[in-house]
Amino acid sequence: MAQAYDDMDAIALLKADHRLIEDLFEQFEKASGKAEQKRLAEKLVLELKVHTVLEEEILYPACRGEIDDHKLDEGYVEHDATKVLMNDIEAGGPDEHFYATKVHVLSEMMEHHFEEEEAAKKGIFSLARHAGLDMKDLADQMRLRRETAMAEFKAHPGRPSETRTFVGDNVDSALVDEPFEEPPVRGGVEAR
């Protein structure tokens, strides 16, 4: 019997996200028409954006100083690499020559990332649990943030995901041990 969403702890919730995203990638691979590919790619990107927010704003900051920082740094860099591809997929469409290939490569990148996070004993999830983090409290924060992040991304479709670890980024945002706050907006343009 599957665990109810509201009863999941933080790790179970993130793993459920992983399975949902993997399923969406499988559906994309089987999609027969361009409209279906576009719909699935948009759903994939939305789910990945929200999932990334949960990890970067809640799990990773909670883990900072509790587990090996290198693991967290690698997670942020992997997220940023996928964000570049997600932004390109979101801006494009199935009529473009490399569109389906980009989605396929993104699925491979996410498969690698998920495997590393979920690895027994050495993955971020296992290490976080072993560090004694309050998984129920983190899950409660994630459920609330999921709602707001989903609403934000739906209200601004096509808004590119912001990277944190590339040259020119606010790399300090990937090094904090507290929730990330968006930079202030000045004159309609986000400050960086």
From TrEMBL:
Hemerythrin-like domain residues: 10-118
Pfam families in the record: Hemerythrin (PF01814)
Classification via Gene3D superfamilies: nmb1532 protein domain like
Top-rank lineage group of the source organism: Bacteria
InterPro entries (UniProt xref): Hemerythrin-like
Protein name: Hemerythrin-like domain-containing protein
Organism: Brevundimonas kwangchunensis
